[in-house]
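re: ur question from yesterday

yeah so i grabbed the chain u mentioned. its 651 aa long if i counted rite. heres the sequnce exactly as i have it in my notes:
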Amino acid sequence: MPEWPYPVKYGEENEVIGDVLVLGGGVAGCYAAISAANKGSKVILVDKGPIISSGSGGAGVDHWNFPCTAPFCKVSAEELTNAIADEAVFDPGISRYIQCKESYDCLLDAEKWGLPLRDVDDEFKGAPFRDEESKMLFAYNYESKFIVRVRGGAKIKKYYYDELKRLKVPMYERVMITSLLTEGGKQGARVVGATGVNARTGEFYIFKAKATILCMSIAANPWVFSTDRNGMGWSMLCPNSTGEGFSIAWNAGAELALMERSFYNPGQFMSPFLGTGFHEKTWFPTTVIDADGKEIPWVDRSMKTLPVEKRSLNASKQKLSLVGVPIFPYKMRWKYSAPMITPNLPNMIKKGEVKLPLYADLPSMPELERRVIFGLMVGNEGKTRVPVYQNYTEAGFDPEKDLLQVPVHPPNHYLFPAWFMGDPPSQYRGPSVGSGGLLFDWDLKTNLEGLYVAGMNGWGGLDHSQAAATGRYAGRIAVKYALNAPDPIIDRKQVEMEKARVYAPINREEGIGWKELMMGITVKMQEYCGEFKHENILKLGLRWLKEIKDVEGQQVYARNPRELVRALECFTVITVGETIIHTSLLRKGTDWGLGHIRIDYPKKDKEHDKKLIVIWKEDDQVKSRSVPVDYHIQPPYAPSLEENYKKHCEL
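ran it thru and got these structure tokens back, copy pasting raw so excuse formatting
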């Protein structure tokens, strides 16, 4: 090992006190900290990485969803929230509605902080996706205009970071949060702070605050660890996101919901799939041709063939098509169906009407569409600016002349019954947008007093603009609570127990390395909580995770603070895996919309149909209950989304 370049201060304590503690410096965390600081609160912001580029948003963003309050948007917040809920079923109505009400304000905030947003140089003047009055550019649906292209999205976190500095928000970077502190050290009690360890110096941090907002991400993937083969591009999410927000909340007694949700999703794991010309999302609506140059038809929900200029419009008599919105399972001819490549493609291949391989045909696209896809979208989306846009361009790729081969998956899976184009997956399961997380109310408050949540730490966590909107919202609510909350009092015994746990790996000179341990954990998740679930193997999975934690976990060693943090992440993934398996055991039925297949219960779980299964720890025992997925408009809340929002939003 080379000499460690930073001073090592294991065990040395730093105590930091504030009003509002924001854990996680990604998109949600930045907006939460800025929002709270603008209310005059003393804010503390903590992140495991460098805040200027941390989190999934740190890699960039090409589009901004659901600015429903914008003058150009043709869809209301109520219409969009209800449309997605109708088709997705398990959609977080509270955070979705907050997103629709506040994402435009968040976008304007970012523009005010310096984000290049509008087409001020008239590069795309006259394009069908451009609003000539505002000079905004739209993605996917040019008619309803509910998704905006972000011109400066590749470096969007820089503008958040600059605003945090302007507001003089204290930022503690490269500090991994290891636990939440509670009153009296009791599980289920009021949250009064958190502990952390510095990834460079090994110092121990004790953060004390009247209110805490969890703004971390979901675990990048409890099923996959494949850095040797794919580098750090094995997940579309930030690979440093290992699920601490879930594990520390779970151990503190917070309620988690929808943790059983995960999907077969080939594109989830390998960022290069965004470099294949895959026609959806970033590349929408690229033309695809076969090996002989034959064009594969694009169709609307009525199977009517669409030319390029109609692929980004609603169908006849259709007010809204949800292109760009992740809805599972894949459906045809439903109310909100968006234009797509024909689902008859598999039959066309079998009959010899289409000759493989397939190619993304950028050269045939209209010039402005081609330039906005490869230049703006691919040039700004997370994990594509350097590996795709920059590297391809430097290698000589010319979108005006060159084709990109598009791999095709066999049409034999329930989520993609027709076909799927993208990179072959390294593994098959993974969490995605809309997966599990903390249960929350209209204040974005959890069941623990003093603990709030924003972004992907909440159940059904969504995308960049949802993280921004909920962070902005939670920051305001947390400040209001902190104004009248008692001072935080830390239980010293709880701190000492956490210090002993955290520093255990540095007291060993040999044993098991963190990579070996992480690989073993993810393999067991694949084997015992994979695509097809059964009570026997799920219970064996819990047994395996406990054994790894109690045996191999007690042999893991760390040679420096970085390895210490990686070792602690292994225990995080074990905890996240346990919550996934516990909830999977409780849902005794198969639900395709959750990616939850129980071979011992092939039919739906009637007891929990359209209900969230909620789990928490009480006296270290797993407890559970269920709540309707639309609890946000059930008593004691009003039946109206707008009424609930106005009552709680604290503008």
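noticed a couple things. The first helix runs from residue 27 to 38. also The radius of gyration is 24 Å.
anyway ttyl
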